[in-house]
Amino acid sequence: MSAWIEMISDEDADPDLQQVLQLARTPHGTVDNVMRVHSLRPNTMRGHVVLYRAALHDPANTLPMWLQECVSSYVSILNNCPYSLANHWANARHLIGNESRADAIEAALHARRPETVFEGRELALMRYAEKLTLRPGEMVEPDVTVLRQAGLSDGEILEANQIIGYFNYANRLLNGLGVSTEGDVVGYYAQETSKM
User: Fold this and answer.
1) CA distance linking residue 115 with residue 119, whole number of Å
2) pTM for the model
3) What does the alpha-carbon distance between residue 90 and residue 190 come to, in Å, rounded to a whole number?
4) Which of 17, 102, 104, 157 has its CA 20 to 30 A from that of 95?
5) Each residue of 100-139: pLDDT tens digit?
């Protein structure tokens, strides 16, 4: 079972759901369980797809994609969300493009010691992600000032904030409904990698 609630298959979807499933299709042509779990309420699936693509896959984002995926992975580690971690760490590893560097980053994030592999703006982002995920009520303006002092623009700070906020939402959706990767194609680059 891929979730603790019913998920409607493509074959059993009514026309309204079919339309939203089309919107949610991945580059692999599938609908991942993170989206299909909304199938009983297509409007939340539509909103989720739009939010996800705006936060993480918008071409206007200026943070490097590998760093966006590392932030996503760190939030998922902090929330103990195996679904998001499986997908977004696979993406981060692919984008980092260096196995030993990726191994070091993965170990550091799992140990909650990003300072062993990051410095400057990258480290500041990981610390911001950790505090916003684990202690959101303690956020203060100096938390943003530190990011600015590390060299991040206000636009990049907003990008990071939205990625962190999105993954806190998605992690809770996934963990709260017992969604697994069963039947999914794990990682955005899985098809591309398999052709190499």
Assistant:
1) 6
2) 0.93
3) 8
4) 157
5) 999 999 999 999 999 999 999 999 999 999 999 999 999 9
